[in-house]
Structures are given as C-alpha cells and as structure tokens.
Amino acid sequence: MLERNGDRSMGQKIERDHQRFRKLVRGKVKSNLSKYIARGEMIGKKGKDLVSIPLPQIDIPQFRFGSKGSGGVGQGPGQPGQPMSPGQSQPGAGQAAGDQPGGHILEVDFTMEEMAGILGEELALPRIEPRGKKNIVSTKDRYTGIRQTGPESLRHFKRTFKRALKRQISSGTYNGRDPIIVPIRADKQYRSWKEVKLPEAVAVIVYMMDVSGSMTDEQKEIVRIESFWIDTWIKAHYQGVETVYIIHDAQAKEVDEHTFYHTRESGGTKISSAYLLAQQILEKRYPPAEWNSYLFHFSDGDNWGDDIPVCVELLKNKLLPNVNLFGYAQVESPYGSGDFFDYINELSGRFDNLVCNRVPNRDAILGSIKQLLSTGH
Between these two residues, 149 and 21, which has the higher pLDDT value? Predict the structure, then answer.
C-alpha cells in the first residue's frame, strides 16, 4: 500500500512539473507569437492537428554548486562583476574544445486549438457575440448503452444470447449435445440511446482576395497567412462554420479553399466585382437575419478609379447594414497606388462594424488581426 501511495504521489509530482513546463512554454510562444504567426507552413492545419514550435532552451531557475576551491563570493579575493562560474573565459578570448553538450533547440507540439487560444490571450480578443440562430440546435440520437426494455428492433442479439446461455448453464437446462438457446423475457437486452444536441452552423466567413497584377507573391502570401489565422480564431467560437472564398481582379469568382491558397492569377482590378458577388452569395445562401456573417477583404488598394463610387455604395447600402463585421486589410505593394484605403477609412467612422488597417509586411500581421477582431461583433 505504501508503495502504491508513493507511486501516486510521484505521478502527481510529475503531472505538476509537466503543467509548470507547459505554462513556461506557453509564455515563450506568446512572447514570440508574431514570429510563429508569420510562418506560412502552418496553413492548412486544423483543430486537433499538431504543429511543432521550435523554442530556445528553457532554463528553470535553480541553485548551481561550483567545484571546491573555485573561488566566488565569500571565498578569497574578488571584484564586482567577476563571473562566479568556473572556467569563464575572458572577453574576446576564443573558446576551447570541451566535453559538455551545447544548447539545443526544443520543439514542442501544440494543437491548432491551443494556438488559437494563445492568439486570443496575447491579443486580448473579446469573445464574439453571435446573433440569429445562435440558440437553434438540432438533435441526433446516439446509442450509448444497454437497457432491459425496448422495441424488438433494438434488441442486442449478442448480449441477449450470452445472458440466456449463462442462465441455462447455471440452472442445468443447457444440453451440450443439443445446444438450443431459448431467451426469455429476463434475458433480453436492448440498445439505449440519448439525444445529443448539435448546434447548427450559424456563422459564415467570406474571404475576398485581390489577385490582380499589382499584387506580388509576397503580398498574396501575407493575405493567406492572415486569412488562415482569422479563420482559426473565429472557428474557435463556433461548432460549425461555413467558409466562402472569393478571388478577384477585374472579375470576381468563388473558388475552393485550395485555389484560394494557391492561385497565381493576375490582371486589372475592379473591387466592386468582389463586393457584388459577396452580396449575392449572402442573400441566396446566408440570410442576414439567421446567419452571423464576417467579411474580410485583402487588397493593395489599387482600384479602377470609376469603380470606387460603386464600391462605396455597395458597402453603405448592401453589405455593412447586414453583416457582423467587415474587415479591410490593405497590403503594401510596390506597384499599387493604395488610394482605396482613404475611401474605406472614411466610411469606418460611420459604421462601427467596419474596420480597416494597413499591413506593410509579415511583422504587421499580428497587429492587423488584433485590430480586425477587437470589435467582438
């Protein structure tokens, strides 16, 4: 008994140490989140998928004892700032070969759900307030156990047969030469079920990306990385989320996720084509009264001049009155004029569900996400 209690105590200590280690690792990831967020190779990971995060060596504070006679505080002469560890080389001196291991990079696995949680903690993002069908759930029967009564259609044959066999053997009525098993009422077992509440998919995210000729491959990659992390964060709030992907140059078209993350198209720019297509998709498939709609548009702001008034009217009269959030992030392109930002920024002062910002490079992705999602609509 003492040995068992000792094993249990050791297991609890190991678990506490493990939790402490995970807390330290989580802090390291948060402090370097901008670097990890900008890694494009995470795109495509979902939910329980694991990602490996490389971390520098984590030193746990502890006392270290030097060898006898090595000097130090309280032992012989010393000067302020003199290193206490043995073998410390002088500044500028080379390092001789030794027999001690060097520092290693530690790789720790996190699920995408954990990464979404860390993203929310670091950016202090508010929880999104759903609307529409947020309380509507569907029910599904799930078979979870066995009961003594029920319809014959749910009778569990194997369990019923075993109970009847055991009863006949114990009562001495079982004949091995003539093995006939006849279940009685007390032998019968039936599958039981319970109703499982399943929340319906109540949120739709629409991503619109400018793929015109003025958008370089780097700008498109920034858009994809930011879209991916916004998607990861919003899906942490809903059991079911539908996603729409739209790419546009002078024309807009709906595409699948793979095409959105890998397309390399080019051409002129007509932003209104994307806004019009998004409006049509929402009206036909995602009625605003029933669905939470989140629209995100990424562009370099280089738009055909006569098209800007059309975009403004679509935003004011069709999209903004009917969506939870419209986020516009403008990436900096060496070829785009960037004029569109001024017009949409002016609108943001009149609509609290319109958020816009500039994303000059990958280092700005984290700040852009924070600004786009900080409203909590």
Answer: 149
Tokens of 31: 């402090």
Residue 206: predicted pLDDT: 95
Residue 255 included in any domain:
yes
The reply to whether 186 and 284 lie within a common domain is no
Task: Let me know whether 290 and 227 are in one domain.
Answer: yes
β-bridge partners, 326: 295, 354
As a whole number of Å, the CA-based R_g of the chain is: 31
Q: How far apart are CA 337 and CA 339, in angstroms?
A: 5
Cβ burial of 14 (10 Å; 0-12, 13-18, 19+) is exposed
In a domain, residue 142? The reply is yes
DSSP assignment of 124-157, as one string? TPPPP---SSTT-EEEEEEEEEEES---GGGB-H
Classified as helix, coil or strand, 260 is helix
Structure tokens at 42: 């995470």
Beta carbons within 10 angstroms of residue 318's beta carbon: 17
CB 362 within 8 A of CB 351: no
**In the predicted model, is pLDDT for residue 229 greater than 80?**
yes
Question: What pairing do the DSSP bridges indicate for beta strands 241-248 and 203-210?
Answer: parallel
CA diameter of the chain: 100
Give the pair of three-digit tokens for residue 173.
């009525």
Which one of 197, 214, 237 terminates a domain?
A: 197
Which residue's structure tokens are 């003025």? 214
Mean pLDDT on 114-119:
74
Helix 112-123 and helix 365-373, axial crossing angle in degrees, nearest 10: 80
Q: Flag whether the pTM goes above 0.70.
A: no
**Alpha-carbon distance 234 to 253, whole Å?**
23
Q: Which amino acid is at 71?
A: G
Surface-to-core class of residue 116, CB atoms within 10 Å of its CB (0-12 exposed, 13-18 middle, 19+ buried)? buried
